[in-house]
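HUMAN: Mind making up another protein with tokenized structure?

ASSISTANT:
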Amino acid sequence: MKTCTKTCTKCGVSKSSNQCHPRGSTACTAICASCDRQRTTAYKINNADRLQKRDSDYQKKQRLNVKRLVLQRLGGRCITPGCGCCELHWLTISHENNDGKSHRTTLNGSQAVYRWVLKATDLQLQKAGISVRCIRCNFLLAWQREADIIEAIKREHQRIRGDL
């Protein structure tokens, strides 16, 4: 772009073309970079709630799209026999190896797990024991695992008491 002098319509100061934002390959905007920065900052302050809601809505849509892609890749329905739930809002990732918390911690959050599933190979998914369950079946499975652990502890206590 050719260097020339242009007067900012906001502050009235003459500035070289490298101090204003380029518009196309041969022109620049009528407002200098510092005035444009002030205008943008003021807009963000005055419209913070609206911008936050817009960004929040966008992020929700993005998360839902990622979840939809992940669940489609994993079959799209609960694998629990007799359930077969296929409602997107009820479905979630299940870790058959009962290591979901450590997986989320390792990857830095549940959304990272969803992104990991999209990138992982089928062998990696199989090794990690990733599947789809509805939230109800996932909770019941976790509850059953906990009940089995409690029962095993009780049996161990009984065995120890019997040995004494």
Remarks:
- Strands lie at 5-7, 14-16, 20-23, 27-32, 91-95, 130-134.
- Residues 10 and 35 are 7 Å apart (CA to CA).
